[in-house]
Amino acid sequence: MRYLLLAIVLMLALPALAVEEKYDFANDDQARLFSELTKELRCPKCQNQNIADSDAVVAKDLRDKVEELVKKGQNKDQVIDYMIDRYGYFVHYQPPVTPATILLWILPGLIVIAGLAFIVLRQKKAAQKASWSAADEQKLQQLIKQYQRKESA
């Protein structure tokens, strides 16, 4: 009975072994910068999760590296550039516009404009086909007269 009670107490104490990371900084500006960077940098392993929320080992390594760089006095841009150099543009939620990515920024707008132009031109063409000309009116009057002659005969 004692062993069962001891086992239950030990199992209930397991959550106390959970570790929460605590980072100490020299001032509040460094702590704020660290928090901002960890929310802005994406975990390379996780699916669209920042390194602040990720439990992946690589995210922990990235948080530690961000802490180290912030404590060394590097600013936000320097830390982001460091991470981009090592992990590529994927690691940053706000990738810059470069010649390689310009199509990704412009192409959706061009597709929408082309689609709207296609719709407008098609409706204009359909409206031209549907317009009633004087020749059409004359043909209609001629057909009406033919029909009336057949009816009266």
TrEMBL record:
Residues 1-18 form the signal peptide. It comes from the Bacteria. InterPro entries: C-type_cytochrome_biogenesis (IPR051263), CcmH/CycL/Ccl2/NrfF_N (IPR005616), CcmH/CycL/NrfF/Ccl2_sf (IPR038297). Residues 7-143 form the CcmH/CycL/Ccl2/NrfF N-terminal domain. The keyword Transcription regulation does not apply. Gene3D superfamilies: Cytochrome C biogenesis protein. The chain crosses the membrane at residues 102-121. This is Cytochrome c-type biogenesis protein. Pfam families: CcmH. GO terms for cellular component: plasma membrane. One of its GO terms (molecular function) is metal ion binding. Possible subunit of a heme lyase. One of its GO terms (biological process) is cytochrome complex assembly. Keywords: Cytochrome c-type biogenesis, Heme, Iron, Membrane, Metal-binding, Signal, Transmembrane, Transmembrane helix. Belongs to the CcmH/CycL/Ccl2/NrfF family. The keyword Metal-binding applies.
